[in-house]
Write a structure and sequence with these properties.
484 residues, alpha+beta, Uridine Diphospho-n-acetylenolpyruvylglucosamine Reductase, domain 2, 4 domains, 20% strand, globular, binds flavin-adenine dinucleotide, binds D-malate, binds zinc ion, flavoprotein, FAD-bd_PCMH_sub1, FAD-bd_PCMH_sub2, FAD-binding oxidoreductase
Length: 484
């Protein structure tokens, strides 16, 4: 008696997706609806390999109008859409749920640079960050945001996560680069904010609501982004330090002496060793191993009297003399500068290859981060014997990636185990007690949804849920991410 009822239930659950896809196939061009599972499969697992979802198809619209049709029909059928750009999310944000009830919506075919002017560019959501850098450079300008995944991450993903990266110190996060958005919201309505208005106070800003909303409120289809004049030259240095506190105080001195410190990235000995072990073509920049390292970038615009390498020499000499910096090397060519940046940008890849770890993307007030990292590492290693904890990354922004490596011989999915989760809860508790954030730049996605619900203030949760309910009454945008 029980099994026929179960069959009926399964049939009813499967039907909305099938009916949605059938309706889409009648109105979308063939290339925009991919049903072959071998073409869908590569996009079902996240970059870290922690989540794998299911999707009966891959939607690949080429225009905003096609996105609008998809969103309107998905609302009518109440079928979830999982927006995806480069699929480099660190929090499973672009991975569909495993039940197959939602459909992947890739923006990767929308790659047009619609306009490029002095001071701004209008680009579509699927434009890859490295391509945006190249387009800006070709016009004598630059787009002042970069990160290790620039070869894959897209404008839409960067906006949806309010991405940070290694130039936030001087230029801010993605939010500071967005001058206007085009997006498709519930019902398939198109919001056009690309006009380039400097002032616009028609109530709450839709652009600002969408930035950092992780695809849960609408689909970004294009953006007007800020461009700034190209730099003439950059100087890059790698320094060895005895403590994270010394790194923080060095940054303060550098910023006091120069307005052109663009990058200051902290690299502990563990991360450097991991990169040297796992990333071919890398070598240690300093002869000795130091407990901490910092990668520093200083730039110069056209017509500036002092070359940036000379600025670095001038700034670092007293620190070396006084022993506040243990050792330092300044890149003598662009190739050497690239090699130093490769050491920093390869940390995620090297750590992924190295073995299981629980990753945390945290911020606390910048001035207390150095102390926080040391104290938190001691607390974690004491509470969970055999683990190794350290932070790396954007020290100047008060944001580090706090990794806790699993004890030897732990399974690949240790971070998802009881112990791995307990480690993350402890780290997040310590962050919250310090007035910090459990997601500084990667977002919440599916990875931190429970932790957000556990630790966010009632005010934050109420507002996030109310906005979600108002903007997405049918629950179609990125189901299962950020908040329910
Ligand atoms: P995806 O991973 O495809 O999607 C990310 C989120 O955005 C998902 O929730 C997705 O649903 C949503 N989304 C994607 N496109 C759209 C759209 N058009 N409209 C609405 N929602 C959309 N992040 C940092 O902030 N700083 C770093 O320094 C940094 N370094 C990284 C280094 C490496 C090696 C890697 C792998 C990742 C790094 N990241 C970093 C994380 C990641 O690159 C960023 O989150 C990036 O913004 C994601 O872009 P994407 O196109 O890959 O988006
Ligand atoms: C980085 O800064 O390298 C990243 O945001 C990625 C990471 O967390 O490893
Ligand atoms: Zn980062």
């Amino acid at each position: 008696m029980g099994s026929p009822a179960k069959r009926v239930l399964r049939y009813e659950v499967a039907m909305p997706v099938d009916a949605f896809l059938a309706d889409l196939s009648a109105v979308l061009p063939e290339r925009a609806l991919v049903r072959e599972q071998e073409r869908v499969a590569p996009w079902l697992t996240d970059w870290r390999g922690r989540w794998t979802g299911a999707s009966k198809a891959l939607l690949e619209p080429g225009t905003t109008e096609e996105v609008a049709i998809i969103v309107r029909l998905s609302g009518e059928h109440r079928v979830g859409l999982v927006p995806q750009g480069g699929n480099t999310s660190m929090v499973g944000g672009a991975t569909p749920p495993a039940d197959g009830d939602a459909v992947l919506l890739s923006l990767r075919r929308m790659t047009r640079v619609r306009a490029l002017e002095a001071g701004s560019a209008i680009v579509e959501a699927g434009v890859i960050l490295a391509d945006l850098h190249a387009a800006a450079a070709a016009s004598g300008q630059r787009f002042p945001l970069t990160l290790g995944a620039r070869g894959s991450a897209t404008v839409g993903g960067l906006i949806a996560t309010n991405a940070g990266g290694t130039q936030v110190l001087r230029f801010g996060t993605m939010r500071a680069q967005v001058l206007g958005l085009e997006a498709v919201i519930a019902g398939g309505l198109v919001h056009d904010g690309l006009g380039g208005l400097k002032k616009d106070n028609r109530g709450t800003s839709l652009d600002q609501l969408l930035i950092g909303s992780e695809g849960t409120l609408g689909i970004v289809t294009a953006a007007r982004l800020r461009l700034i004049p190209a730099i003439a030259e950059r100087g890059v240095a790698w320094v060895g330090l005895d403590s994270a506190e010394a790194a923080w105080s060095l940054l303060g001195q550098l910023e006091e002496a120069s307005e052109r410190v663009e990058g200051f990235e902290l690299v502990p000995a563990e991360c450097l060793a991991s990169v040297l072990d796992h990333v071919p073509g890398t070598r240690s920049p300093l002869e000795q191993t130091h407990r901490w390292n910092a990668l520093i970038e200083v730039t110069a615009g056209r017509g500036e009297p002092e070359p940036p390498t000379a600025t670095l020499e001038r700034l670092l000499a007293p620190a070396l003399e006084s022993g506040r910096v243990a050792d330092a090397v300044i890149a003598g060519s662009e190739a050497q500068a690239e090699a130093l940046w490769k050491l920093r940008d390869s940390i995620s890849e090297a750590e992924r290859k190295r073995g299981p770890a629980a990753q945390h993307d945290i911020s606390v007030p910048p001035a207390v981060m150095a102390r926080f990292m040391t104290d938190a590492a001691t607390r974690v290693e004491h509470a969970f014997p055999g683990t190794r904890a350290f932070g790396y990354g954007h020290l100047g922004d008060g944001n580090v990636h706090f990794h806790v490596r699993a004890p030897a011989a732990s399974s690949r999915d240790w971070a998802e185990s009881g112990e791995g989760k307990a480690v993350s809860r402890l780290v997040h508790d310590l962050v919250t007690d310090s007035g910090g954030s459990i997601s500084a730049e990667h977002g919440i996605g599916q990875m931190k949804k429970d932790e957000l619900a556990r630790l966010a203030s009632p005010a934050r949760l109420q507002a996030l849920r109310a906005i979600k309910q108002a903007m997405d009454p049918r629950g179609i945008f990125n189901p299962g991410k950020l908040v329910d």
